[in-house]
Amino acid sequence: MAVHHIDPAEALASLRTAREARAAARPRPLPGWYPATAAGLFALGFVLLGLLVLLPQRLWLADAGLRLIAAAALIGHVVVSHRIEHRPGIVPALPRGAARRRAIALQLLPLVAAGALALAFGAAGFLLTLGLTGGFGHLLLLRRKRARADAE
Length: 152
Known about the structure:
mainly alpha; 4 helices; transmembrane; transmembrane helix; membrane
């Protein structure tokens, strides 16, 4: 039987590397402020775009201000979502089974509702409904995702 002699310094370095790799692979929960912030920015951006459709065109200063705020909210939503969802240790994936169907339904229902109201009220109905229902669905999904990560 062969005996292998391992340098204690190399063994400690290997153990440290393994511990760091294990810590990096451990999923970190979403911050508590993230669900409300992401959903609120989404809703605000689309609701303001819907209000822009209803606003008389002669109010150009209010129109420009609302466009700027709506764009800032939607860009903020994308930036915040990207920064949080693409952190090390987070692998974005849809859940399996019934939870997957609920997640897909929460993303499709706002589009269906917005499409139905678009037929009745035009672009304003579409954007307002998408903002409110999409923001609410986004909030529910992110809270559920955060609760699931906390339970693990």
